[in-house]
Amino acid sequence: MTTSDGNRAEIIQRLLKPQSIAIVGASDKLDKVNGRPLKHLMDKGYAGRILPVNPKYEQIEGHDCYPTISDLPEIPDLTIIALPARFVADALVALGEKGGKAAVIFSSGFGETGAEGQAMETQLQEISSRFGMCVMGPNCLGFINAFEKVYATFSQYADGATGDGPIAFVTQSGAFGTAIASLVRQRGLGLGYFINTGNQADLDFSELMMGIVEDPRIKVAAGYLEGVKDGPALVRLAKRCRELGKPLILTKVGRMESGARAAASHTGALAMSDAVFDAVIRQYGVIRARNEEQMLDIMEAFCQPRRPAGNRVGIATQSGGAGVMMADRAEEVGLEIPQLGLETQQRILDVMPEYGAAGNPVDVTGQFVARPELLSESVVAMLDDPDVDIAIVWLQLMTAHVDKLVNIFADIQTRTKKPFFVCWVAAPQAALEALRNMGIPTYTAGERSIEAAAALIRYSESASKTDDSVMLTGNGEASVGNGNLPAGALDSVSAVDWLTRAGIPMAPVSLATSEDSAVELWQRTGGPVVLKVESPDILHKTEIGGVVLNLNGESEIRQAYNLLVERARNAHPKADLKGILVQPMSSGHVELVVGVSHDPVFGMIVMVGLGGILVEVLKDVTFRHAPFDRNEAARMLDELKTGVVLDGVRGKPAVDRGKIADLLSRLSVWAASMEGRLSELDLNPVLVSEDGPVVVDCVMILDASRQDVAA
Amino acid sequence: MTTSDGNRAEIIQRLLKPQSIAIVGASDKLDKVNGRPLKHLMDKGYAGRILPVNPKYEQIEGHDCYPTISDLPEIPDLTIIALPARFVADALVALGEKGGKAAVIFSSGFGETGAEGQAMETQLQEISSRFGMCVMGPNCLGFINAFEKVYATFSQYADGATGDGPIAFVTQSGAFGTAIASLVRQRGLGLGYFINTGNQADLDFSELMMGIVEDPRIKVAAGYLEGVKDGPALVRLAKRCRELGKPLILTKVGRMESGARAAASHTGALAMSDAVFDAVIRQYGVIRARNEEQMLDIMEAFCQPRRPAGNRVGIATQSGGAGVMMADRAEEVGLEIPQLGLETQQRILDVMPEYGAAGNPVDVTGQFVARPELLSESVVAMLDDPDVDIAIVWLQLMTAHVDKLVNIFADIQTRTKKPFFVCWVAAPQAALEALRNMGIPTYTAGERSIEAAAALIRYSESASKTDDSVMLTGNGEASVGNGNLPAGALDSVSAVDWLTRAGIPMAPVSLATSEDSAVELWQRTGGPVVLKVESPDILHKTEIGGVVLNLNGESEIRQAYNLLVERARNAHPKADLKGILVQPMSSGHVELVVGVSHDPVFGMIVMVGLGGILVEVLKDVTFRHAPFDRNEAARMLDELKTGVVLDGVRGKPAVDRGKIADLLSRLSVWAASMEGRLSELDLNPVLVSEDGPVVVDCVMILDASRQDVAA
Fold it and tell me: What interface predicted TM-score (ipTM) does this complex get?
């Protein structure tokens, strides 16, 4: 990207809303890849100028056809390149020389085919960069802007109805993306934009979506990803979506390690840790859908404007069992099924037949066919209850009563301002269409309706609650003055000193270089101490028996000192043994592991997990992108599956989650300031007592090359 | 049940395939509950005799109508009772006096409405029992036998086409069950039987399904449950289905505790532990579907006759990303995505365009539209690979190419004997219908196709692998001779002795009633010992500090003896202190908890989990119905989420899973022999070293009332 971001943003807007579109390699065979854009533009009524380019034709379908790009009578806002791969670079140069700034390259045969194709793709990047162009593709289906009727695509999706709508959907995969777009159409939700980014040689998902979310006609942003190269761009996009109050829904494949490998080989994307991706996007309010069905379900929930104020769900069904299944799922995903207030119960009992139940879920039975008010009054009463934030009505089949039921739901909709969903199993098609036309999210399976409600609720929750106190007071200056440190493991005394200045509660540590100094340091401590081997070449001290705990007495200290020197020499004869660390004994009944690492996609990442056997057996850790505030840190602790250990198990007292969150937030501020200089930091163990956490051991590794970059 | 089971089985067969059907309370208003059965029987061509009963009519729709049951000209094989609740009991008596043996009661207003209704329901049970009748309902939609065109129902489902088919579906819920039946119809799978059991006053899910699975026209048994009262009947059904090689697919709501409560209150079922239900049905080869969508998906997989020989899945897609998503899900559910053999890869590369990939998943791209052999040859090559057991082909949309694709799949089907599925996202309806008519399981979402494949694979796996060596040699006789023991906690020495004779590796234990005898017992042990308080009133010894470890020396023993006596007296002054137990120290680096309990639904249940913090924080335990063999016990260990601890973590050696499985299997045989006498057994901790497990502490509680029952 040689052009400024602002300039690129303008070019992207012209690309998405062009006044003129050139089609290089246009064909009069309108069913072929290079014929379909022209057909769609004409059929669907594009109002701008269409400029086919192909020396074989004088005209195509009444449009003057130009032999070469340089022959074009104007600089097109958008140029579609539909040529065999080997001709694409020359066409792009010609476009650049003409002054064209935006292109969509359909052609395949680039990075996705191997090294040779990758070299050709790199060439495209160089050309677009040289001319300051924005290029979509190669190896993509192009895009649709349904508002301005721009059909710069050969996707099968364009063959059907493509009415506009509030959803922008950007997909890396053409085939899967086309399927998802078709599912959106099947639901009648309406795609305003549909973009397939393909190989993303230049324009990637985040930059394109950034150009779309500002469009006031767009209410919901959704993406299908196979990998992410530019993490910061995705973070910027997520933050912007949050500012705009527009949900960003992402499905990314490669959740498992083997899947991630396959995805990386498929798209040339970096093999990023899915766990990091998952945590970081959650941190910035992105909603992750696990697959295409869930993406559709969540899209539908957000296409209507109502948002729940909390996580309390009222459920009304005509089947007790369906209610139980939905309540089960709600509990699993952390939603509440509240008791209804007495007044609400009375209102429901007033209309309820004897064999219904006024609890939550409310079983209204099938009798509402004869008495519609049974359903409408029950659901309105439920939604009027101050302890209910959103309601879901479950019903089934009822083929003969569609009109009656649609009227009931229309009535409910006017009588409440709270969101409510319909779940209609084995629904007649007419019912689904009518309800969706009314803007009522409608599902065909109970568990799926609960999951969609959960996404709506989580999104509302994530928009609130920030506590910037740590981040605003800041402690980044603690990293100043250490710019000239060499690469590799930093000595423990310096590392502890540095982190202490950054506000991290480190157990103090001193270096003894002789028996006598060890004794002196112990005496100064005035209590039991730990002795540890100190060497940049021995980072995992415990593996060589390089730690001796709980020493209190001169002869003990001397013996331990000599023992450790001996062990270090035996295990690593060539290690640079700096001495023996002396540290007062720390205590704490909860053991944490905390770390900082440099993720190749997102940058500085902070990790926390329960230590000991729990982290080893369960890999129960969670991540955040640095920096983050204390509330975000507290949410990390909430995410730990074994987090209950913090609240006291096996007779142990609870520890203060706030103090741990404080440590994590401060560490994240420091970590962010170390971007480009820190390679890795392990704080392990962090012992937590009722007084708070203390870091007992740390390994800090600085990065030479990154230090140069940042300098 | 006063009639013998054999007699009941005959009555149930007549009920399901009646030559004559009486309709008590029949109406000429054919759209009403009491008119609909007649309408359906006539419309759908029931060949037997239809006998309406209602004093208001001479005839209904050309059928002679009889004023009362006693006026009927014959004893009907089946009688439908469609009367208000208050008239049902009298009708049932009249039927009994007439000699009728089988009835379906539609009427609601019984157990589901509260205590008064429950009393009326109990009366129905008494009447049916007195006359040796089999009664379906009350509060049910009745049933359909589509083969013999028996429509003893008023379900909405019967309004549409109800062609027969290989699935028997029995549901406790009417509304939810109707929805599921309609979904089965939408998929074109075909229901042979559709039964709603309602309140199950007499006939329950298991007994009815037992009468159906023998029908050779039925290939797949499926059920929707809200609760289970008769666990042994369900176990018998599951065993019979396994013998017949017919899958039994169950969806049960109430997975979470709150849901289970709601389900119990809804159906009057026992609030059984869902974890026990889940484990026990898995033990007997039942497939659990988590919701109605998954039930349909799994039904569809089993409706075709091909079964995979193993868990290795080949995937072919036209989208790399879809392949990754499916591979991810496969890994999550324990399926393998094998590397393809070199020969297979070569065969695929022979037909593959340059931009495809011959790995697994195979990305055949969208080019197969132009070159059908690309798809057919790739998939056949994959299925020919000896390392592939089942294949799934993923594609999308392709509205214009349905016939071509259906022909490709027909070709593949004839060229392989292995099962394969099609996953077609945003599929044209014609494609779904054509493929399903060909018996190819067809899905519309990738993850769902993987889950259905997993069910097919797990079922094939569960049919094999039994190791009855422990169960056949038996050790039930170990329980003989203890019949007269009193209820309550058994003393430790007797309990250890008893379990030792049953083949359980118990740490030996002796009771000291004086300091001197404690010393003598220590001396006899010849090494370090543990001393523990022994009292039937102090079952949780550690809570009062009632255990002292690692004693070795006379004065230590004496001091510890007195300390424990003191502690017991202080903590429980009125406790019956029998003495102090002396036990040699045991060691083991893995700690298990093992237990036996009496489940109200299923009977004797064995539990195992990892001990210590893992069981406390994670509740990671699993269950089986006693007795079971060593292979089943090994599967219990496989199910533990923290089972990796058994294989050695944190530098510890692995332990022998086989020896733990042996303990569990032996314990299960003993537990089964104790049905009716054992209330509870806790073996905690069980320490496992490289030498195997040893039970260090046990609490056995006998049950007086149940002892009487068994006597």
Answer: 0.91
